[in-house]
Amino acid sequence: MKVRVLGCSGAIARGSRTTSFLIDTDILVDAGTGVGDLTVGEMLRIDHVFITHAHLDHITALPLMLDAMGARRRQPVMVHALPQTIEAMRAHIFNNLIWPDFSRIPSEAAPFMRFAPIETGEVVEIGGRRIEALPAQHTVPAVGYAVSADPAVRKDGQAATWVFSGDTGPNPAFWQRVNQLDDVRMLVIETAFSRRESKLAEISQHLAPDTLAQELAQIAPGKDFPIYITHTKPTETVQILVELGGLQRDSTQKSTPPGAKDQGGRLYELHGLQAGQEFDL
C-alpha cells in the first residue's frame, strides 16, 4: 500500500497545498488543493474519495476534479462521507449555483459521482484495503480514517495500517480505537497552531503543541510508530516544529527528528509532513 502526500498544509501559499492523500492510485483521502498537482490521467484512475469533513480546504478540488474528468470515466466516482458532510456539499457546493450537481449530471442514472454515506466506526472494503471512519472532534461533523492493507494481499502476509486524524481537537475516542488497531505503520495527526495561538486552536477545535502532547500520552504502552505532523499554517509551520522538538538537518539535508516528549517524559518520533512525499507501507 502506497501513500502519496498531495497536500498537507492548513492554508495556501506558494508551495503549500491543502489536505489530500492518494492511496495507491485509486483512493483519495480528502480533496484539498493538492489534487491540482495530479495529471488528468492520474485523476481518471481515482474511483473513491473519502472526505473527513466539509470545510473548504478539504473539499475544494473535488468539484474541479470531477469537471476535469467529465464524461471520460465509465463509472461514477464514489464520494464517501458522513451524511452531514454530504448534506453540506449538496447544499453549498453541488447546488447548480456554486457548481453543477455532478451527482445528477449527465443523468441520475449515470452521474459523474455518487455520494456514499458512512458513519463513524464503519468500514469500507475496496480492493484488499479496509477504510475505517475514526472519531474526530471538530466544529462540524468530522471523521478521521484508518486505511489497512489486507494481509492476504501483502507479500509479507502482515497487515499495514495508515492512520489519519483529520481535523480534530482533543479526542479520547480516537486513541481508544487507534490502540486497538493492528500494525500501525504511520500516524498523520494535525497540529494547526503554535502555542501563541493555542486559544484559537481551542476555539476552532484544532491541536497545538501542548494539546498534541496530551493526546499522544494516550497511546498505549508498547505501541510504537512514526508520527507525522500535518495541517500546520504556512506562517506557523517553523514555530510549531520548533515547539514540538523541531527537525534537525545534517549536512546532507536528511531529516533526523529528535522527537518530542509528552508531559510524562515519553519520547515520540515526530516528523514534519511535506507535499510530494511518498510512503510504501
Describe this structure in words.
The protein contains eight helices and 18 strands. The chain is globular. The termini are close together. The longest helix is centred in the first third of the chain and has 10 residues, at 83-92. It has 281 residues and is α/β, with parallel strands linked by helices. Mean pLDDT is 90; it is low at 246-258. Helix content is 20%, strand content 26%. The strands form four sheets. A seven-stranded mixed β-sheet has the order 6-5-4-3-2-1-18. It has a single domain (2-280), classed as Metallo-beta-lactamase, Chain A, CATH 3.60.15.
CATH architecture classification: 4-Layer Sandwich
Structural class: alpha/beta
| Count of folded domains | 1
Strand content: 25-35%
Q: Assign a percent range to the helix content.
A: 10-25%
Give the CATH H-level superfamily.
Ribonuclease Z/Hydroxyacylglutathione hydrolase-like
Q: Counting H and I runs of at least 4 residues, what is the number of helices?
A: 8
Rg over C-alpha atoms, rounded to the nearest angstrom: 18 Å
Roughly how many Å apart are the termini?
A: 5 Å
Mean pLDDT value? 90
The spatial strand order of the largest sheet comes to 6-5-4-3-2-1-18
- Largest sheet: number of strands, sense, barrel closure: 7 strands, mixed
Strand and helix order? EEEHEHHEHEEEEEHEHHEHEEEEEE
The tally of beta strands, per DSSP, is 18
